[in-house]
Design goal:
alpha/beta, Rossmann fold, 6-stranded mixed sheet, 4 helices
Length: 150
């Protein structure tokens, strides 16, 4: 895939009064989109998830690597770890990302998958259950699906 065939851009999602930063990559002929749900102190800058995203992009899948915590929450979480296990908060934000993807002009026609890592796996499962008509697949890497409860 050449750089001309791919659009990469930073995005900022305003979800329920919270501003979340992300990186959206759209192959020219994308056939689907994967939202990355990070957890346990990780972010959109995770080298592991970026590596997975690059492979998906070569396979013509768009990716949205999204920080599920605001900058202030992330800074606070680094010393307190209070937000990384707040699964309802993380799930709400993944749901918000799904809703955003469905309304954003360039991503609206794409089928959606969610890739959850660590506690993000629980958030991904909950979000998929709350948006069953939108999410076609959930994949977990080193995840904590046990934290999804019901």
């Amino acid at each position: 895939m050449t750089i001309e065939a791919t659009t990469r851009r930073p995005v900022q999602l305003n979800l329920a009064g919270h501003s979340l930063n992300g990186d959206l990559t759209l192959p020219l002929d994308a056939r689907g989109l994967v939202i990355f749900a990070h957890g346990s102190g990780s972010s959109r800058h995770s080298s592991r998830n970026r590596g997975v995203a690059e492979v998906l992009q070569r396979g013509r899948l768009a990716t949205l690597l999204l920080d599920l915590l605001t900058a202030d929450e992330e800074a606070r979480d680094m010393s307190t770890a209070e937000f990384r296990f707040d699964i309802p908060r993380l799930a709400d934000r993944v749901v918000g990302a799904i809703d955003w993807v469905e309304t954003y002009r360039e991503t609206a026609p794409l089928r959606i998958g969610v890739f959850g890592a660590s506690t993000g796996a629980a958030a991904a499962l909950i979000a998929a259950a709350r948006r069953p008509g939108a999410v076609r697949a959930v994949v977990s890497r080193g995840g904590r699906p046990d934290l999804a409860d019901e």
